[in-house]
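Researcher: I'm comparing several assemblies side by side, and this is the next one on my list. It has 228 residues spread over two chains. Same procedure as the others: predict the full complex and return the structure.
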Amino acid sequence: KNQVEQSPQSLIILEGKNCTLQCNYTVSPFSNLRWYKQDTGRGPVSLTIMTFSENTKSNGRYTATLDADTKQSSLHITASQLSDSASYICVVSEASGGSYIPTFGRGTSLIVHP
Amino acid sequence: DARVTQTPRHKVTEMGQEVTMRCQPILGHNTVFWYRQTMMQGLELLAYFRNRAPLDDSGMPKDRFSAEMPDATLATLKIQPSEPRDSAVYFCASGVGISIDTQYFGPGTRLTVL
């Protein structure tokens, strides 16, 4: 069964510090991996989408990495800001002839304190 | 700037009642997705459409849920009859493709079934 595991479940850091969130998956065959940011009471917002051939992708202070061999991804947040407080969700899609077959992680809840 | 809109934002209803949720995708987007999010299950894909045609609704309880796109500017998700276990936040997302394209989420409809 396809699974996506995110760690840690929750994280508290001080403003200005860096942090790294992890996503391990068993989805096969692999199509792509997405990271979303979800603020409380809002819909998820796409941060990055990576395919098999991509190792790193950045979006401002967010940098995602992908190791397709070990089936691991990380999301690194640089110089955190209070507005980074949110849930970060990893979604891995299975390759299936153009269909969309996602498996969702349960998310990491990040709190940035001043 | 272009956004996915959803109505209503909140809905409280009693068990057995019909619930209809509406979504207006971003103009020009030809793919629409319906998701459900709960604390227990996290995010789940319910159904998705391309060019108004349903491509997959395997994530929906068939006996009570139905999803349609009457036209390119309106997608609906209907629950009849509703049950307390349907209480969740329902998100609509739109995009220009299916497998590796960015999805833009609406703000969600928070449904409470008493």
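Model: For your comparison table: The first strand of chain A starts at residue 4 and ends at 7.
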